[in-house]
Specification:
The protein is an alpha+beta fold. The protein has eight helices and 16 strands.
């Protein structure tokens, strides 16, 4: 069965590879966003999906908006259905009607929970212990279409948003393939979403800032949710300091929120409850380093504290 695949970031690469390798499916074109400036030199760089599609020898269509011209090119592929994984733009009604069987989206949440661009990030920040993925038929709303299939996964102690997204991208690939085939053949009938909806808007850099007045567990959830992007940070003497991971330390008390202290070769920071242990940090303009090495470099100061 001929399909078109739409996706942009690294997270969307595993499903593309899986669909391309499935003998029941033929990926006849890949839709991705246009090359974007990357790095300090702002070098125009293809998306992760665009780059991988070219390596696989697949035709690539780059567009930030699905215009009439783009729709015509999609129709010309002869595809019966489209697959979407983090394309990065809403598809308007005319685009939804390009294919006979519409589009199936693989979304990394248990819809209707966490509708939006950052479902895994928001779930971890909220302290969810179970995450998942949902395939659904695209409509004009924000992740509001009827459900085709779901899977669930438990959050692990070492997880960050990055590790959960990578895992769900691989685990969700077979679900996406079966959803495409089931919908196109009529074996599967989509069902309306049920339950209370929650929003997962894109994260900003400002939101990634750590609030040390929050309880230790909330601080740990926050750091996990914004790692690796946009990256948790705090302020030290007017400069940003990135924080890679923190571990709640209920045995360490008596530290004021944001106060840093070395105890038994470990670095602790006070929160609104007990302390958290810092593991790795990255000062502005420098490479990541062990938190202990950074803290030892600050010992000449009377007190080290984060703003």
């Amino acid at each position: 069965m001929k399909i078109v695949y739409a996706g942009t970031p690294e997270t969307a690469v595993p499903p593309l590879e899986a669909l391309h390798a499935d003998p029941r499916l033929e990926v006849v074109a890949v839709l991705t966003r246009e090359d974007a400036p990357v790095g300090r030199k702002r070098v125009l760089t293809p998306s992760a999906v665009g780059r991988r599609a070219e390596e696989l020898g697949l035709p690539v269509l780059k567009a930030n908006r699905v215009t009439e011209e783009v729709r015509e090119r999609l129709r010309d592929t002869g595809a019966l259905i489209g697959a979407v994984v983090a394309y990065g733009a809403l598809l308007p009604r005319p685009a939804l009607e390009v294919f006979e069987h519409g589009w199936v989206n693989l979304h990394f949440s248990l819809l209707p929970q966490w509708r939006g661009a950052a479902p895994v990030q928001r779930a971890l920040m909220a302290g969810d212990t179970v995450v998942g993925a949902t395939t659904f038929v695209l409509d004009e709303g924000m992740d509001t279409g009827p459900v085709v299939g779901t899977l669930t996964d438990e959050v692990r102690s070492e997880d960050t948003a990055g590790s959960v997204l990578e895992r769900l991208a691989h685990e969700g690939s077979p679900l996406l393939a079966e959803s495409l085939l089931g919908l196109a053949t009529g074996r599967v009938q989509p069902t309306p979403q049920r339950g209370e909806a929650s929003a997962a808007p894109k994260l900003t850099g400002a939101e990634a800032r750590i609030t040390w007045q929050h309880p230790a567990v909330a601080v740990a959830h926050h750091v996990r949710g914004v790692t690796p992007e946009p990256g948790a940070w705090t302020e030290h003497e007017g400069q940003r300091l990135k924080v890679e991971r923190v571990v709640p330390a209920p045995e360490v008390t008596g530290l004021a929120p944001g106060t840093v202290e070395i105890r038994d070769r470990r670095v602790y920071t006070g929160t609104g409850s007990y302390a958290v242990e810092l593991t790795r940090v990255q000062p502005g303009g420098k490479k990541p380093m062990a938190a202990l090495d950074w803290a030892r470099g600050q010992q000449h100061r009377e007190q080290v504290a984060f703003a």
